[in-house]
Amino acid sequence: MISRFYRNDLDSLERVHRRRSLVLSSGRDFSSNDYLGLAGSQDLRDAAVEALERGVALGSGGSRLLRGNTVEHEALEAEAARFFGSESALFVGSGFAANSLIFSTLPQPDDLIVHDSLIHASAHEGMKLSRAPRVSFAHNDVDAASDAIADWRAAGGTGTPWIAIETLYSMDGDRARIEEFLALAERTGAVLVMDEAHAAGVFGPDGRGLAAGFAGRENVVSLVTCGKAIGCEGGLILGPALFRDFLVNRGRSFVFSTSPSPLMAAVVRASLRIVEQADERRERLRALATSAADAFASLGFAPSGTHIQPIVLRDEARTMRIAGALQDNGFDIRGIRPPTVPAGTSRLRVSITLNSEASDIRDLAAILERLL
Between the CA of residue 342 and those of 169, 296, 310, 337, what are the distances in Å? Predict the structure, then answer.
């Protein structure tokens, strides 16, 4: 029977306690990526109402190359390019779609993709579709990335290396050695692809991200997701206009996808203006992250230095048991286990956002101390 495979697979997940289901969000927010608390803000509600009142459509009606390209898409892309300091921007439906589009389209068969071992799953999906070979290097190890490129050149590699990193890693909360990777790209003739998903809006001047100041270079491509600190949805690919033109012409998932909602494009544009003026929000977030780091340090966990604080418990069963107990006590915290993170590093991923207060952090630390 056709259904047997699917049933057996789900049953196998059930046996090892990995079968998942969708649940409604509840409890105090320590799991979302809504870092600046904009997703449910009145500011973005007002922006959506204003756009609707001036006649912006909810749906686009087609792909960007057919009838789905609107003034809202182009206005957003112009605004995003200005804000992030890039020559051009391309708006797509999600950060996942953006990563997939970049890696499936830009690197060519004679090129090489070298990527951090902890790069986002969406980048891996794009690389699977790429015609270029790929090789992983140890997390944040610039020398290992350099060696991979040197080995490829020694074996006859003649194309362009593409170095793929995140500027802020989603599960460890640590930062990339951006300037060192950029220097490596300069030495080797590589293109540096930087995923700013968890940094844009939070770090850099006016929230421009950890890659701020590098985005205008001809060998830099960066990705900003709009569904995290920006509070909306979609993804922005930032880089040279030549790359944008190539993606528009050769990126199959772009060519054949219905374009994102014009309404969402208008709201993202409004959010970028809010983010630009959001120093007070960023300061409050930094203060909360510091409070969390101090609270968890007293429990024996090293601070990440950012708003993403992993509490690495190592043992998978214990991690999931404590996560469940925290949820039962009204804290929305999720246990993260392999294969999302390496074996032996199961953890609670504590995300600090402006949806929580300092008192919530104190309450969380107190309950966690009892559970540990």
Answer: 14, 22, 13, 8
Distance, in Å, from the CA atom of 139 to the CA atom of 176, rounded to the nearest integer, reads 9
Are 247 and 41 contacting, i.e. CB atoms less than 8 angstroms apart? Answer: no
Angstrom distance (rounded) from CA 134 to CA 116:
11
Please determine, for residue 20, whether its predicted confidence score (pLDDT) is greater than 70. Answer: yes
> Cα separation of 156 and 167, whole Å?
30
Using CA atoms, how far apart are residues 147 and 137, in angstroms rounded to an integer? Answer: 9
The pair of three-digit structure tokens given for residue 231, joined into one six-digit string:
């509070």
pTM exceeds 0.90 for this model: yes
CB atoms within 10 A of CB 219: 18
CA separation for the pair 123, 134 (Å, rounded) = 11
pLDDT in tens, 208-246: 999 998 988 999 999 999 999 999 999 999 999 999 999
Indicate the pairing of strand 220-225 with strand 191-195: parallel
Reading the block at residue 131, the tokens are 């015609």
How do residues 124-166 score in pLDDT, each as one tens digit?
A: 999 999 999 999 999 999 999 999 999 999 999 999 999 999 9
Kindly state the helix (H) or strand (E) to which residue 315 belongs, with its residue range: none
Maximum distance among all alpha carbons in the chain? 61
- Residues with a catalytic annotation lie at 33, 120, 166, 170, 195, 198, 228
- C-alpha–C-alpha distance, residues 198 and 31, integer Å: 13
Query: Are 331 and 362 within 8 A, CB to CB?
Result: no
